[in-house]
Structures are given as structure tokens and as C-alpha cells.
Amino acid sequence: MIQISIRPCYADTDQMGFVHHSSYVKFYENARWEAFRSMGMPYKNIESNGILMPVIRMNMQFIKPAFYDDELFISVEIEKVGFTRLRFSYTITREPDEAISKAETTLAFLRKENYKPCRIPDFIEEMLWQEAQ
Questions:
Q1: Radius of gyration for the alpha carbons in the chain, expressed in angstroms and rounded
Q2: Structure pTM?
Q3: pLDDT for 57-114, tens place per residue?
Q4: Alpha helices in the chain (DSSP H)
Q5: Contacts for 54-57: CB closer than 8 Å, 24+ residues apart
Q6: Rounded to whole angstroms, how far apart are CA atoms 37 and 34?
């Protein structure tokens, strides 16, 4: 599991002062790529190896509102799904371990040259295997 922290900016909130639901998509995206970066594989490197990873499914649950400048912690877990996909599970908390939101995204692997699905590249599978150790 990898954890990052964020602070919602004013533009992330709505008229009620809550962090807007659409902002969570951005938060999960940032957490996902920071998780890859922390394992030594920035997404930029994945693309430079000819691989794209589009989101093909997203499920979000909102438990409590978050507000401007709250310090939020996003935990990310990565799970291999079959030969062509990864599932990411996220939990956003505010101190002290107050659950704000949970989500899951599923990403597929595509070849950049033709946008066709492909197996999880060996270099990503090795990275995930090392992280699990």
C-alpha cells in the first residue's frame, strides 16, 4: 500500500464549501501516478515504452465531505486483474483515520502504436512483484 497526502485548493470546492465530487477523480489520478512513481516507474516512462493505461471503470463512494485546505491522505493498493488490467483501490481519510471516500478504478493496457489491448508488460509486472515482497 502506498499513501500520499493532498490539500484541496479553493477551486476544488463547490458553493456549499464541500470538495466537489469531480475533484476526487483528479485526486485519485494523482495518487495512482504517485504510487507508480514511488515504485520507480513514473507514468511518463510507461508511455515512453509504448504503453498506455486508460481508465475503463471507476466506482466512487462518498462517505463524508472534505473541505478546502483539509489535509487528506490517499491510500492506494494495486491488484493485477487477469493478463491485461490493473485494479486500483483507494481510501481517502482525514486525521484521525476519518474515512472520507473510497474508490476503485480499473485500467487496461494498450499499445500506443495502435491502441490495441495488450498483456501487462514484463517491466510493470516485475515492478508489482517487487512491491508485493
A1: 16
A2: 0.91
A3: 999 999 999 999 999 999 999 998 889 999 999 999 998 889 999 999 999 999 999 9
A4: 21-38, 43-48, 122-132
A5: 54/107, 54/108, 54/110, 55/105, 55/106, 55/107, 56/85, 56/106, 56/107, 56/108, 57/104, 57/105, 57/106
A6: 5
Q: What is the pLDDT of residues 5-37, one digit of tens each?
A: 999 999 999 999 999 999 999 999 999 999 999
Q: How far is CA 121 from the centre of its chain?
A: 19
Distance, CA of 54 to chain centre: 12
The three three-digit cell numbers of residue 90, written as one number: 483507494
Rounded CA gap, 66 and 12, in Å? 10
- Cβ 116 vs Cβ 59: under 8 Å: no
- Band the pLDDT of 133: cuts 50, 70, 90: low
In whole angstroms, what is the distance from residue 89 CA to residue 79 CA? 8
Between CA 37 and CA 14, with CA 9 as vertex, the angle to 5 degrees is: 125
Amino acid at site 51? I
- Checking DSSP bridges between strand 98-108 and strand 55-62, what pairing results, if any? antiparallel
